[in-house]
Amino acid sequence: xxxxxxxxxxxDDLQIRKLxxxxxxxxxxxxxxxxxxxxxxxxxxxNDIKLVVLDVMLPDGSGLEIxxxxxxxxxxxxxxxxxxxxxxxxxxIGLEIGADDYLGKPFNPRExxxxxxxxxxxxxxxxxxxxxxxxxxxxxxxxxxGLRRVVNSSGGQLDLTSAEFDLLHAxxxxxxxxxxxxxxxxxxxxxDGDVFDRSVDVLLSRIRRKLGDIEFQLIKTxxxxxxxxxxxxxxxxxxx
Length: 240
Hints:
Layout: E1 6-10, H1 14-26, E2 30-34, H2 37-46, E3 51-55, E4 57-58, E5 61-62, H3 63-72, E6 79-83, H4 88-96, E7 101-104, H5 109-124, E8 135-138, E9 141-144, E10 149-151, H6 162-173, E11 178-179, H7 181-187, H8 198-211, E12 219-222, E13 226-229, E14 234-236
């Protein structure tokens, strides 16, 4: 039996909650509404939430802090931030602390639904690609598309967000080739009107840190060009 994705909407504005809840329900999603941090935490404990739509300004806490706390607690539930903040730096902070996407207010509910589907698709469709290798091996790491995870030489799993995994996967699968920002934006389903190029830089900075690529030896920046994954990559399994 098909189970619709369960979406948690967290916003202290009652009218926005009702509007988004009604629209997303009409689009086939299961929806739970929360007005603050306390009700968000209760909803996460009692429901199988697949994605959180989170306003950054809540009466009892910052959405940015909530996002950071969830990632610190190793929660991999995708998060889309809703923000009235216009500065790039605020959006960059959201990406740096582990948000999967963001949407500036005011916005069309239809766009939010499209972004929700894109984020969920990034989580679910990689393992369905028939000719994808079972894993890519490089520098002691193993990237496993079907399981959407990266394992280090000690067997530990890297804590990557959905967008980080997709970006790294795109680079590793095409090692030795220069990939443009536009290509990488499309690879992370961010190639739409509200995106800014620096989001790729932010994601790559986080990926480099998690890989321990402090000296930019694995991922090279090509001036006025794009990025190249330079490590030797071994493809194992289907599609070799």
